[in-house]
Design goal:
about 150 residues, alpha+beta, single chain, 6 strands
Length: about 150
């Protein structure tokens, strides 16, 4: 069973930047993970969200989804990001959330099969960052999971 507090504790201990950014786990289930952050801790000189903070929360939302998937399947593996791209559609001017939704079932099955066969697998995830005005940032990241 996936528990929000377990993910929040993991983020705090394994990725302490989440403390500085004020990131909180809002929702966690097999279909999606949503993280939230306050604008007050992540603003730039113009009063909008700092692009680095938006990139960080998007990257962490994908990492969190991978963490949840592996945990749900009792797979012990380390997750890192291999590469990513991000598009900033407009300034983020209020507290914001990053949501990573589950990719298609075939992609997930291929990742889990690769982990079982080779001890390593890759998966591309998409994350959307939104604020009170709606979607603002689109992120694509390729994550690698590797068994110890």
């Amino acid at each position: 069973m996936l528990v929000i507090e377990d993910l929040q504790d993991t983020l705090r201990t394994e990725l302490p930047v989440t403390l500085h950014l004020g990131i909180q786990v809002v929702s966690l289930d097999p279909e999606h993970v949503t993280l939230a952050a306050p604008l007050a801790a992540n603003h730039n000189h113009a009063g909008s969200a700092f692009a680095g903070s938006l990139n960080a929360i998007a990257t962490l939302a994908g990492w969190s989804w991978m963490w949840a998937l592996l945990r749900a399947h009792d797979v012990l593996a380390r997750v890192v990001i291999q590469d990513s791209s991000i598009t900033y559609e407009r300034p983020v001017t209020s507290d914001f959330q990053a949501t990573c939704r589950s990719p298609d079932a075939g992609s997930v099955s291929r990742l889990l099969a690769a982990l079982q066969r080779r001890g390593r697998g890759r998966l591309t995830l998409h994350v959307q960052v939104s604020d009170q005005a709606g979607p603002a940032v689109n992120f694509r990241g390729r994550y690698v999971a590797q068994r110890p």
